[in-house]
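Predict structure. Chain length: 281.
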Amino acid sequence: MKEKLKSFFQKRFFVVLKQFVWSKFFLINLGLVALIYFVVVFSTIKYLDVYSNHGEKIAVPNLVGKKSSEAKMMLDELGLSYEILDSIYDPSLPNGIVKQQMSEPTALSKVYVKANRVIGLRLSKKSELTEMPNLFFKHADFAQGILENRGFVSKIEYKPTKEANGSVLDQKYKGKSISKGKRIPIGSEITLVVGQNEIGVLVELPNVVGMNYKDALNLLNSSGLKSISTICNDCESLQDSLSAVVFGQSPEFVPEKTVERAQQIVVLINAGASQIEDSIQ
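Prediction complete.
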């Protein structure tokens, strides 16, 4: 009895299942599911092809050795982008020459890229910056050694002083004082103003009265006198001063007279003066 019931229900189940599968409702829904599946899959594949530029191949050019402007133009024409990563110090090249590129040229790597790929560039720079040290009150020889180790060139200008003899009183770059930490190109010339105690150092005082002003300055400088001030009555331009005649000096010239090297010398000139006036005391 049980076997008959079991057989009856099994046959009934398969009959109902067969009728359901072959029903119009089931077949319509199955077709809709299949259609939706294929539409979704096809659309996704098509989107990915478009988004990833599937099948597109662009050869990366060799940009090393070219100017940055030329490299940018080449990449723009190919539909590629670029990014300046950093600069590489190379004094043998002008600024802005491509030294390295990320990615390698296709001719070497055999690898192609797609549109809008960013190519990283490293450019040359002719000068490298480094920080200016603090040299104030350091001895001149020690200060010059520090500058040399940092790649700078130095020259010394002496300034009369009663204290800090031989020490740096000022540090200058392009004629202006430069502070510690300021970044300037390697190889720059730094002027060290060094104190020189000349109290008690005597030099012979020359006679510049009657001389051309320019020649008078040269004579005073060659004698070791550096502290010189000038008074000109009729000078309106630098040319007037250079062509003027010295009519007086202070201290007054006396044969074999000596003065301290730090002594200030006052020179009086008169533009276009035709005769020498008396010296001032």
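Summary: The two ends are 155 Å apart (CA to CA).
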